[in-house]
């Protein structure tokens, strides 16, 4: 079946603008994760959604970052008033929770460049 | 907090030879999982192999195997018969419990010489 998809593949934005990054998880996967990959910080966890539970936002670096997951499927990561240090690859992953299959499957990522 | 350390930033191996990538971790949990992910230039993270902490037997997937030393908190990846397609970044990752976030090491860039 289809894997995790993310859009856009690349995004260039000016400092101070808002951006939205989209993630379509694998159908039936109830858990969804966002990670950020940057040169200086490596791969960092940002936020985790599981079903109808309150999301784990413990990895969000500032209040400029927010995410939502509509209908338990598609997720959008929003960065407000972008800064140059937000430049990174943003990776989304999804996984099942039941049935013993917990592997996280990753999308191809969105490369964000803030100029 | 859990930490994952990959101390080698780069390694190189001759095609058809064997290479070992090192990883250490720190945790106070008893139930956890360890992973090696491969990231080629396409950015797609690909799961190479996983190890459940409660299993004493080292995991093996074709040419990939791990040396899991639980007491030493060490989790190395051995790639046998290296192929040009193995060239990529490799990340060691830790997960506490069955369904939780991944904590990654800094990664290692593996190059394969023809």
What this model shows, in words?
Chain A is an all-beta fold. Chain A has strands at 5-7, 10-13, 19-24, 31-38, 42-50, 65-69, 75-79, 88-95, 105-106, 110-114. By secondary structure, chain B is mostly beta strands. Helices cover 0% and strands 54% of the residues of chain B. Chain B has no helices and twelve strands. Classes of the chains: A mainly beta (115), B mainly beta (114). Chain A binds chain B through residues 31, 33, 35, 42-45, 48, 50, 56, 59, 89, 91, 93, 95, 97, 102-109, 111, and chain B through 37, 42-47, 50, 91, 98-107.
Mean pLDDT of chain B: 94
Extract low-pLDDT stretches of chain B: none
Decide which structural class fits the backbone of chain B. mainly beta
Largest interface, with counts of residues having CB < 8 Å to the other chain, equals:
A-B, 25 and 19 residues
Proportion of beta-strand residues of chain A: over 45%
Estimated radius of gyration of chain B: 14 Å
Radius of gyration of chain A over all CA atoms, rounded: 14 Å
Profile the largest sheet of chain A: 6 strands, mixed
Count of helix runs of chain B: 0
* Quantity of strands of chain B, as a count: 12
Q: What proportion of the residues of chain A is helical, as a percent range?
A: under 10%
**Number of contiguous helices of chain A:** 0
Q: What is the terminal separation of chain A in angstroms?
A: 37 Å
Order of helices and strands of chain B: EEEEEEEEEEEE
- Give the helix proportion of chain B (percent range): under 10%
Low-confidence blocks of residues of chain A? none
Overall geometry of chain A comes to globular
β-strand percent of chain B reads over 45%
Structural class of chain A: mainly beta
Topology:
The complex is a heterodimer of chains A (about 120) and B (about 110).
Chain A: E1 5-7, E2 10-13, E3 19-24, E4 31-38, E5 42-50, E6 65-69, E7 75-79, E8 88-95, E9 105-106, E10 110-114
Parallel strand pairs in A: 2-10
Antiparallel strand pairs in A: 1-3, 3-7, 4-5, 4-8, 6-7, 8-9, 8-10
Chain B: E1 3-5, E2 10-14, E3 19-21, E4 24-26, E5 32-39, E6 46-52, E7 60-61, E8 64-69, E9 74-79, E10 88-96, E11 102-104, E12 108-113
Parallel strand pairs in B: 2-12
Antiparallel strand pairs in B: 1-4, 3-9, 5-6, 5-10, 7-8, 8-9, 10-11, 10-12
